[in-house]
Amino acid sequence: MATEQELQSLFNTLDRDQDGKISINELFLSPGLSAVISSETNTNSPQELLVQYDSDEDGSITFEELKKAVEKASNLT
Predict the structure, then answer these.
(1) Quick one: pLDDT at residue 36?
(2) What InterPro entries does its record include (predicted)?
(3) Exposure of 56 by Cβ count < 10 A (0-12 exposed, 13-18 middle, 19+ buried)?
(4) Nearest residue to 37 via CA among 18, 19, 60, 55
(5) Hey, which residues does 22 pair with through a beta bridge?
(6) 10 Å Cβ neighbour count for 68?
(7) Which ranges constitute the DSSP H helices of 15-45?
(8) What is the pLDDT of residue 53?
(9) How many other CB atoms are found less than 10 A from the CB of residue 32?
């Protein structure tokens, strides 16, 4: 389980170009962190995360989309 602050820190680390979104490429560039995201959101892969939680369908995950995914998995403390 992650706190919102820990989740924000993880998000910022994955957001390499600092555009406020995590792209599929950024997820694949950090497999270890991507695995943490998968476990916190109860998804099996970055692709599944995007399919389920990319609400604006822009091919990337914003912090709010990630937060919703973690909340839905009941892993946000």
Answers:
(1) 87
(2) EF-hand-dom_pair, EF_Hand_1_Ca_BS, EF_hand_dom
(3) exposed
(4) 60
(5) 61
(6) 17
(7) 24-29, 31-41
(8) 94
(9) 6
8-50 confidence digits (pLDDT tens): 999 999 999 999 999 999 988 888 888 888 889 999 988 899 9
Question: Helices then strands (H, E): number in the chain?
Answer: 5, 2
With a cut of 90, say whether residue 2 has pLDDT above it: no
Q: Which residues contact 53 (CB under 8 A, 6 or more apart)?
A: 41, 61, 65, 66, 68, 69
Model confidence, pTM: 0.89
Contact indicator for 28, 34 with CB cutoff of 8 Å: yes
Rg (the chain; Cα; Å): 11
Contact call for residues 29 and 18 (beta carbons, < 8 A): no
Q: CA–CA separation, 56 vs 52, rounded Å?
A: 11
